[in-house]
Amino acid sequence: MKVFCYRLRMAPSSRFGTPLLADSLFGALCWEVAHRQGQPDLLKMLDHFRKGDPPFVLSNAFPGDLLPRPLVLPQSPGARCAWVTNEEFVAIREGRAGFHPQEHPEALSEIRELHASGQQVFETRDWTWSPEWAKDGPGYFSIYARVTPEWVRPLSELLKSVGATGFGKHRGTGRGQFTMEAAPEACPWLDPMPFESGFVTLSNFVPQETDPARGRWSIRVKYPKFSAGFNPEGAVPARASSLKGRLLQLEAGSCFQSPGRPRRWYGSVIPANSGDADGPLHYGLALAIGIKWPHEAV
Fold this sequence. Notes:
The chain has helices at residues 22-37, 39-50, 86-93, 131-136, 152-165; strands spanning 4-12, 56-63, 67-68, 83-84, 108-117, 120-129, 141-147, 178-180, 185-186, 198-201, 215-216, 219-222, 247-250, 255-257, 265-271, 281-291. With 298 residues, it is of the alpha+beta class. The protein has one domain (4-97, 132-291). Strands 1, 2, 7, 8 and 9 form a 5-stranded antiparallel β-sheet that branches. Strand 5 (108-117) and strand 6 form a beta hairpin. The chain is globular.
């Protein structure tokens, strides 16, 4: 079945208490399926992920029109270019020699606040636009998704519903609300190209043992949790459970050389309970975009 890559733009109307990463977005979407359509439809959808036939694969959410800088491109000492434009991204995909991306302002600011409840003091962490970005940058995030045709509209509607009620931690206090700015936008510039010999991931992911291992990457440690109530951490509601401990993820922008033409996605979905193949899952798939692997890269 033909699968296309789309961009969905979300405009925040409040702070976010949870970073806009693919696994957390997936968890929120699954809860929305359960609330709107019922547990049987959710389990039917998850079965496709378990069998290696995902109807959609999500990216992290990126500020404005920027994408993560592919780590296959060497970074100059002292340079601050964590982001690239889509034109720069395509140039890196094509392996153009002597290419140096421009620097872009930091998009987000972290806000830490202390609160008191009885005799206990606790800290909350929120994210919002940085003053520099709020002044000149577009006020939306871009999510990229490789989607089967029958899931394009439902995915957009589910995201719209998540935004109306709020996403992630502290949504009961108004955190994580957003609107969808436009209809899903096709991204032919992310389609496969004939010269591909590696890939860059647009989402944090957990690789399988059979995934390519030769490349350049960065690692993020996550401490996911799951409960029977609303869960912002990426696990999905199949039954009450908990996922504790550490989860190592390779971050968006990580690049790998492939022995042949790269696939459109890598990674895995992980049972929240060890040995419970039919229980809740944690999303760990990579939205993979093919690149020309440079000769000088590792």
